[in-house]
Amino acid sequence: MKIGAIIQARTGSTRLPAKVLKDLPYGSGISVLQHVISRVRRSKLIDDIVVATTRLSEDDAIAEIAGREDVKCYRGSVEDVLERYYFASKENGLDIVVRITGDCPCIDWNIVDNAINLHLKEKADYTSNTLRRTFPYGLDVEVVSFEALEKAYFEAREKYDREHVCPYIYKTKAESFKISLLTAPPELNYPDIRVTLDTKEDYTLLCAVFDYLYPDKPYFDSSELVALFIKKPWLKFINERVLQKRVFSCLEEELEEAKKLLRLQELFNVLRILENLKL
Question: What's the pTM value of the predicted model, to 2 decimals?
Answer without folding.
Answer: 0.88
